[in-house]
Amino acid sequence: MPDIRWLSEEEQQLWLEFREFLWGFPSAMDRQLARDSGMSSGEYAVLAAVSQGAPEALRSGDLATSLQWERSRVSHLLRRMEAKGMIERRAASADGRGQEITMTNSGWKAIRAAAPAHVGFVREALFDPLSELEKDQLRSMLGKIRSAVVERELW
Amino acid sequence: MPDIRWLSEEEQQLWLEFREFLWGFPSAMDRQLARDSGMSSGEYAVLAAVSQGAPEALRSGDLATSLQWERSRVSHLLRRMEAKGMIERRAASADGRGQEITMTNSGWKAIRAAAPAHVGFVREALFDPLSELEKDQLRSMLGKIRSAVVERELW
DNA sequence: ACACAATGATTGACATGTCAACTATTTATG
DNA sequence: CATAAATAGTTGACATGTCAATCATTGTGT
After folding, report:
1. Among A89, B57, B68, B86, which residue's CB has the most CB atoms within a 10 Å radius?
2. HTH marR-type domain: from which residue to which, for each copy (chains A, B) (predicted)?
């Protein structure tokens, strides 16, 4: 292997920290939601998206797009959430292939009960520790990294 | 709910970007490894850790510590990797409870074959897009966020 | 020594995600 | 219109992770 630019000690260090962070943060978020509200971060994301959406019922595919998830992931999760009574699905009126998602009363209760603690976690974990400047820097860096990955057609 | 500090529009925006990033980047990394080398990021992490370790065989628990993974996660993955012939496990000589992990020839071949493309991905996705200053900033921010989560005993 | 806690690791049940194949509808095209 | 292609979504097989329970070995205190 000729011209591989291997990582320096320092780069290796940052990379490992970064990788641990990518694993550790979502894991912490899941634990917070499970502990305080008995739901997964996926369920929270779906409930939040559906509850904030337009008055018209959300389509399953739109959910996949807005969350940037695979269709089958959405499909599996919605099935489980429907079984738990958090949401309901029905054939879309406009397009016979589509599914419209609506929240049940139980779903509304669940998201309202979970939101305060979860927002608290987000605020204390992400926003409070960073200055305004740092938040801008973070946003910018995430954008740059994301673009680089997109260019490689892996995002 | 009295004094909840909800997120502003802008904060909400950053939070959603952040959350998508936390999901999207590892997913991209997995796709790179699967596509170029037919292995998962977990397998790569294990092979890299074992191959870089001291000459003495690595203990399963040490692997869990250094990767910051749960023991059972390590155990499950090592079982699958042993079945694939990437690594071997044997009872530790010093401590009858421990397991020592060694790489097979096949494991060595796999990591050597996978490393160039994976390092390339890391470099192009993370290091090349960021300036030296930004890398320092990133390291610092990740540390701050991590500390905040650790304080909440969720990390 | 002996009882009992602590440690190292595994296991099983289950939640979640991916990928590829499939069904059903809608759209496009000659 | 007839057929083909595109779109929406589901499904099943399988990889991966969590949690709680379990097992075996090692350490500790008296």
Report:
1. B86
2. 1-147
Contacts of B17 in chain A (CB under 8 A): 139, 142-143
Following CA atoms A137, A142, A145, A150 in sequence, which dihedral angle do they give, to the nearest 10 degrees?
Answer: -140
Q: Which of B122, B149, B141 is nearest to B68 (CA)?
A: B149
Along the 155 residues of chain A, how does pLDDT read in single tens digits?
Answer: 568 899 999 999 999 999 999 999 999 999 999 999 999 999 999 999 999 987 788 999 999 999 999 999 999 999 999 999 999 999 999 899 999 999 999 999 999 999 999 999 999 999 999 999 999 999 999 999 999 999 998 99
Residues 5-34 of B with CB under 7 A from strand C: 27, 30-31, 34
Asked whether residue B18 is domain-assigned, the answer is no
Measured between beta carbons, the chain A residues lying within 8 angstroms of B21 are 142, 145-146
Instruction: Tell if A53 CB is < 7 Å from nucleic strand D.
Output: no
Taking an 8 Å cut-off on Cβ atoms, the answer to whether B121 and A146 are in contact is no
- Residues forming a β-bridge with B103: B87
Tens digit of each residue's pLDDT (9 = 90 or more) over B79-114: 999 999 999 999 998 899 999 999 999 999 999 999
* Residue B6 forms part of a structural domain: no
For residues B88 and B48, is the Cβ–Cβ distance under 8 A?
Answer: no
Place of tokens 């940052």: A14
B85 touches chain A (CB under 8 A): no
Say whether pTM exceeds 0.90.
yes
The answer to whether residue A138 sits within a structural domain is no
Domain that holds residue B122: 27-130
Interface touch A129/B135, C-beta < 8 Å: no
**Residue A37's CATH number:** 1.10.10.10
Could you give the number of structural domains in chain A?
Answer: 1
A53: part of which helix (H) or strand (E)? Answer: none
